[in-house]
Backbone:
């Protein structure tokens, strides 16, 4: 059973994470430098093995909306021994028959953090203590999702091995920065919904490369349900609306996203606005943690 209270910043060899564990200061080569308990900060989504172990257990054996199943194979440490090493969860998408199973695809999954950014919080003027407070919630299991890093399909004609999708694009990487959505999960979900509806979307090429994975969920509604993202959306007369994290706490007229928000993606730049964004993210991740227990 998942421990939804566990903070994965505790699992990156920087000691126990509390709201006062984070320290942030201006850098020279990098604009901001942050540390945990005086030690160099490490992202759990790449370097916390426990996070990958928990997700491997959670997803193993789960039935997908397509009718296929997820089979967790192993957790692989890439670039082992190097500074840029990272973990990866390798899974098979399998179709079960009466007496045998067929591998549809093998996929390397990476974990993606869906909470507020330390960098953008610093840019907005939030203090280390304020950032540490939201990280206590957002770096729990509910603050993370998985996306493929690569996809391979079994070779044909009885040959051993896999054919891998060329020029593969990760949704995790594509959604970051000003060319994407500044890592905002709300904007990502809106754009992905448009792809499922076969409408114009910003990351069309990336989603197309991930089609084998995304089609396992059949449609956007099933994607939301499978990943327990229900609290990030609202369904009204069969239309799924995406909650705007920048105004959710205000309950204002812009509570839900529109296509213009995605086309002109932005991130809150002042302290009050970013605090609203962070607070909304934190509240919804708390709710998602509860949903993840209802496996």
Residues:
């Amino acid at each position: 059973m998942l421990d939804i209270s566990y903070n994965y910043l505790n699992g990156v060899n920087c000691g126990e994470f509390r709201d006062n564990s984070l320290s942030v200061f201006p850098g020279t080569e990098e604009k901001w430098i942050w540390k945990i308990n005086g030690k160099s900060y490490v992202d759990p989504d790449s370097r916390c093995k426990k996070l990958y172990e928990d997700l491997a257990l959670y997803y193993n054996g789960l039935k997908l909306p397509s009718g296929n199943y997820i089979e967790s194979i192993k957790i692989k440490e890439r670039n082992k021994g190097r500074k840029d090493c990272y973990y990866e969860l390798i899974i098979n998408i399998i179709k079960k028959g009466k007496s045998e199973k067929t591998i549809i695809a093998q996929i390397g999954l990476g974990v993606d953090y869906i909470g507020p950014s330390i960098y953008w919080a610093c840019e907005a003027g939030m203090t280390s203590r304020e950032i540490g407070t939201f990280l206590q919630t957002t770096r729990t299991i509910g603050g993370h999702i998985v996306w493929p890093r690569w996809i391979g399909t079994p070779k044909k004609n009885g040959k051993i091995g896999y054919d891998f999708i060329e020029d593969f694009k990760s949704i995790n990487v594509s959604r970051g920065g000003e060319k994407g959505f500044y890592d905002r999960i709300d904007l990502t979900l809106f754009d992905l919904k448009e792809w499922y509806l076969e409408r114009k979307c910003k990351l069309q090429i990336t989603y197309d490369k991930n089609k084998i994975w995304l089609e396992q969920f059949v449609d956007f509604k099933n994607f939301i349900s499978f990943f327990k993202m229900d609290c990030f959306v609202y369904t009204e007369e069969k239309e799924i609306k995406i909650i705007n994290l920048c105004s959710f706490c205000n309950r204002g007229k812009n509570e839900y996203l529109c296509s213009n928000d995605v086309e002109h993606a932005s991130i809150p730049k002042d302290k009050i606005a970013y605090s609203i964004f962070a607070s909304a993210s934190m509240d919804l991740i708390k709710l998602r943690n509860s949903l993840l227990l209802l496996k």
In short: The first helix runs from residue 44 to 47. The chain has one domain: 8-292.
